[in-house]
């Protein structure tokens, strides 16, 4: 939450284990209340990681290691907020910041973080519904100037900047600065948005018909978020094609069924492996947005059940690692582009791959190396790079839906 109540106790002290446990319990109670009253929000919050501690003065959301995170200060949540319904309003407020993409949204034309925070809260607090906002919450009535409802964060920002001398005085100590919002890089943000979209998709399904009771703007935001991060390629189908041409198996013991030969336990079953090398073009011609999109696609490949090895490469292979659901904090490269080094690395791997996928903008000389396994090129939609002529190419859409953003 972006609220810091006057007279809030010191937040620098380490909370006791009892305070931490109580705060977790109160968050869970608030989530249950939301599940009963507004199922979509409750089911969405169930899937978001939580952190209880003194790092923030009140409560807030951010992205950490490619995951959405709700952070709550015990002194604020169970001390300052004595009303259970207010606690519900606080956590709903935070999840709305995630849905509205306020976290990590940068705007060079609107660099004043303090005004941007106020503008973001103006938007979010209009969507809280009947839950009571805590004292000091930022609303249109908090200012001396007239502010119409239902505007975007950018609209409120520009209006507040016009009247900055008068409208923000006295509000400096009543809100935090959304400190986690600007700490994520584009790769981290893209992976976290993909995870949030998957959580929203599941929450929408669990909410069923009650999702239609949510405000129209919220429904538009959720649908846009899901569409934004949908994979451009049917990776399950691609992995199946790879598996049909080259697939490794191993025998594993199982207690779920007896041996067909001897009728005793344990029995055996065949486990099929699909080991995929995914090359990420980390050259300078691939901008941060597309790089983030690459890692959204990698997450979809991984979720299809494949064992994924990521190979970061520009003019040379910079590093390789096993993907486990998280995007890297930083990537190696940013030079020119050569396709052959990554393909040579795949061909020479001590453990063979069932297939390889090359995520690239396609701007390089034709490759001359055979990786020794089925190879799929994924390039931006509309691109027709001559370097890949005669090889299998799949277009990758940008995945932007153009939905409502506040």
How is this structure best described in words?
- Helices cover 37% and strands 16% of the residues.
- A six-stranded mixed β-sheet has the order 8-7-6-9-10-11, with helices on both faces. Strands 1-3-2 form a three-stranded mixed β-sheet.
- α1 (17-37) crosses α3 (74-80), α1 (17-37) crosses α4 (84-99) and α4 crosses α5 (113-125).
- The two termini are 17 Å apart.
- Residues 1-11, 172-177 and 400-404 have low confidence and may be disordered.
- The chain has twelve helices and eleven strands.
- The chain has two domains: 17-228, no CATH class; 235-396, 3-Layer(aba) Sandwich (Rossmann fold).
- It has helices spanning 17-37, 39-46, 74-80, 84-99, 113-125, 153-162, 164-167, 186-207, 216-228, 235-245, 288-303, 340-347; strands at 49-52, 59-64, 67-72, 248-254, 267-273, 275-281, 307-313, 317-322, 355-359, 375-380, 393-396.
- With 406 residues, it is α/β, with parallel strands linked by helices.
């Amino acid at each position: 939450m972006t609220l810091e109540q006057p007279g809030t106790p010191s937040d620098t002290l380490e909370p006791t284990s009892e305070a931490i446990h109580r705060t977790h319990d109160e968050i869970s109670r608030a989530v249950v209340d939301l599940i009963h009253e507004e199922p979509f929000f409750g089911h969405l919050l169930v899937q978001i990681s939580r952190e209880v501690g003194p790092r923030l003065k009140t409560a807030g959301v951010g992205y950490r290691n490619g995951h959405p995170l709700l952070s709550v200060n015990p002194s604020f949540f169970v001390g300052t907020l004595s009303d259970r319904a207010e606690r519900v309003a606080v956590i709903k407020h935070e999840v709305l910041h995630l849905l509205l993409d306020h976290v990590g949204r940068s705007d060079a034309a609107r660099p004043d973080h303090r005004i941007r925070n106020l503008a973001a809260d103006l938007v979010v607090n209009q969507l809280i519904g009947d839950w009571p906002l805590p004292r000091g919450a930022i609303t249109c009535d908090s200012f001396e100037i007239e502010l119409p409802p239902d505007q975007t964060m950018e609209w409120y920002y520009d209006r507040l900047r016009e009247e900055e001398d008068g409208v923000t005085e006295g509000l400096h100590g009543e809100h935090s600065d959304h400190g986690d919002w600007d700490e994520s890089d584009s790769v981290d943000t893209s992976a976290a948005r993909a995870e949030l979209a998957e959580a929203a998709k599941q929450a929408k399904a669990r909410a069923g018909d009650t999702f239609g009771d949510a405000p129209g703007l919220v429904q538009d935001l959720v649908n846009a978020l899901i569409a934004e991060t949908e994979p451009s390629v049917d990776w399950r189908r691609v992995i199946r094609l790879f598996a049909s041409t080259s697939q490794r198996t191993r025998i594993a013991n199982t207690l779920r069924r007896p041996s067909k030969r001897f009728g005793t336990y344990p029995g055996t079953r065949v486990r099929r492996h699909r080991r995929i090398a995914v090359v990420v073009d980390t050259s300078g011609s691939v901008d941060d947005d597309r790089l983030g999109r690459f890692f959204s696609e990698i997450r979809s490949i991984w979720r299809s059940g494949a064992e994924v090895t990521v190979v970061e490469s520009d003019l040379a292979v910079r590093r390789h690692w096993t993907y486990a659901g998280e995007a890297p904090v930083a990537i190696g490269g940013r030079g020119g582009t050569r396709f052959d080094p990554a393909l040579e690395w795949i061909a020479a791997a001590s453990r063979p791959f069932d297939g390889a996928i090359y995520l690239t903008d396609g701007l390089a000389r034709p490759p001359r190396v055979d990786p020794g396994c089925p190879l799929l090129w994924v390039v931006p939609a509309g691109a027709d790079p001559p370097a890949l002529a005669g090889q299998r190419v799949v277009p990758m859409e940008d995945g932007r839906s153009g939905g409502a953003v506040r």
